[in-house]
Amino acid sequence: LRLLPQQRYLRVERADVSTLERKRNVLCCLITRILKVEKQLHIDNLVFRVIDACQKGELCPGLQFLSFCCHSVDVLSCVLHLLNQGYLRRQEESPHVLEY
């Protein structure tokens, strides 16, 4: 018998949930904005560009003052969310390349 550590997201307070949702929304907007300009981008390049924009505070026109820490897992989670929602798609011949 092996005990697993408690999942952090199950113990998140309401304020933390709201913060996580805002972070996810900002990341999804940023991903979409980058891909609208580039039209297609390798997933690795997209992750690096999103993380770089977060660190520099270059998020969105109304959120220029905001900078926060994001990790590749955060960005990839948002990419999967946008793929499932149909906002992004993968190229058939190159599934590691994303298109808007």
Automatic annotation (TrEMBL):
It comes from Columbina picui (Picui ground-dove). SUPFAM superfamilies: Winged helix' DNA-binding domain. This is CUL9 protein. Residues 19-96 form the Cullin neddylation domain. The gene is Cul9_2. The lineage of its organism: Eukaryota, Metazoa, Chordata, Craniata, Vertebrata.
